[in-house]
Amino acid sequence: MNADRYTVRVTKEVFIFSCGHFITFAGKNCERLHGHNYRAAVEVDGPLDENAYLFDFIALKDRTQAITAELDHHMLLATRNPFIAVEEVGNGVRVRFEQKEWLFPREDCILLPIENTTAELLARHIASRLLADLQAQHHFTPLALRVEVEENIGQSATYHWKADGSC
Question: pTM of the predicted model, to two decimals?
Answer without folding.
Answer: 0.94
